[in-house]
Amino acid sequence: xxxxxxxxxxxxxxxxxxxxxxxxxxxxxEAGKIEITVVSANPNHLYKPLYLYIPLGEAELEDTRxxxxxxxxxxxxxxxxxxxxxxxxxxxxxxxDGSELDYDYLVVGTGAIPQPEETPGxxxxxxxxxxxxxxxxxxxxxxxxxxxxxxxxxxxxxxxHVCPAAPVEFPMIVEEWFRERGVREDIEITYxxxxxxxxxxxxxxxxxxxxxxxxDIETKTFxxxxxxxxxxxxxxxxxxxxxxxxxxIPEFTASPIIEEAGLGEEWMEVDRNTLESEHAExxxxxxxxxxxxxxxxxxxxxxxxxxxxxxxxSEVRDQVPTxxxxxxxxxxxxxxxxxxxxxxxxxxxxxVVRDENRFLHWSKLGYNEAYWLTARGVM
Amino acid sequence: xxxxxxxxxxxxxxxxxxxxxxxxxxxGKIKDVDDGTVVELLTGDEGSKNDVPEWVEEADHELLxxxxxxxxxxxxxxxx
Lengths: 379, 80
Ligand SMILES: Cc1cc2nc3c(=O)[nH]c(=O)nc-3n(C[C@H](O)[C@H](O)[C@H](O)COP(=O)(O)OP(=O)(O)OC[C@H]3O[C@@H](n4cnc5c(N)ncnc54)[C@H](O)[C@@H]3O)c2cc1C
Hints:
The complex is a heterodimer of chains A (379) and B (80). In chain A, 28% of the residues lie in helices and 26% in strands. With 379 residues, chain A is an alpha/beta fold. In chain A, helix 1 (12-24) runs parallel beside helix 9. Chain A is elongated and about 70 Å long. Chain B has one domain: Translation Initiation Factor IF3, CATH 3.30.110. The radius of gyration of chain B is 11 Å and the shape is globular. The termini of chain B are far apart. The A-B interface holds A 159-161, 164, 194-196, 199-202, 222, 224, 236-237, 272, 293-295, 327, 329, 345-348, 350-351 and B 13-21, 23-25, 27-28, 31, 47, 51, 54-55, 58-59.
């Protein structure tokens, strides 16, 4: 009998896992013992880190997407449907067209969904911008292109926020971009953060202080945005801040199918070392959808997929799975348009941020191209 | 080891949470719950002992207790 591994989601986690699994289980697939299916609501794979560059005119939407069929191993079956229900007792998925798909092993990689609408005044047709989606980042490009004087405020709202580096990078990149355009003198930049320092990760916060000071980027802490009216931000703490251009890092949430399936309250609850669901048999989570106590970042999905693939392969072969994940996370941080650095940590390893340099900036830009090899499972 | 009689309505397990860190995890939960809810934050981060009370005071919530469980801390906060 053929056993079916179903992966829900064709993002970073789902795609890398599908490719590595088909490589690892090559002989089982050829022998007809295993088949692998990816179910994705979107027939394209999206490389979201490029959304950071679209507002500055340094990337185009078409650079962010590639058809899944070009990235995923030919031994994997692709199904372009939205999963509407996961039945972990009956081991079956319901789709938006009414069809069903049974599984023996299930990997859930449905990502984190930006929720700008959770903050009044943020999102489409509202005064507050963000860059966490194709339309939003293009709208911001148009607004920024016409912005040559006034007060730009970048506020981190969401906790957790997908990609902890993006809010750190954006003010420094846009500051240099304004200088290059010769309009910096007429623009004031303010960065706000919910807690008493500039970032949840202490070493990142410490790294930011002198760099933001040097660049004359104002900062405000204990700043929990409650709503964004025309020209004024109001906070939970009762503060007000006027702006001409407001960019928010929105709230995020998991797909409602997670909670409905009893897989977790909002985020999918998994064992931090084995990635197995805390609530169902033969179910694993990968990437931003999980409650892993680390960043919602592509690198986490990438490293975790190695553990996941090894454990699923062991299950398939009736061996005892031994591979474990220890929270390895690496995030590049751009310090403007010329230099960059990175932060690295794991569950039991404190984060370290090194001084920025040109080489790491070019490494990040290079990685943005090389990413497509990561998605293919090559590197 | 020490004990407490406080009953938490919600628990945030931030043990090992490096990014964006236990305090941010706690704020995320506090935003979602109703006034009067007692949230227990589990954290292995030494810094949380100072971070959390400082934020709780600024945001006008109530710090009920900080318990040292040996390997981690349980910090009880009531949303007001
Ligand atoms: C602006 C920005 C900048 C970033 N910068 C960085 C960076 O510099 N470094 C870094 O490491 N990370 C970065 N990230 C984060 C990175 O993009 C994510 O961590 C990564 O994409 C997570 O992968 P994932 O597979 O969990 O989710 P995603 O890539 O979001 O994929 C989710 C997939 O699930 C599918 N899906 C969702 N629901 C359903 C359903 N019900 N049925 C079927 N399919 C479904 C979607 O269509 C999609 O294919 C950034 C993100 C953004 C937005």
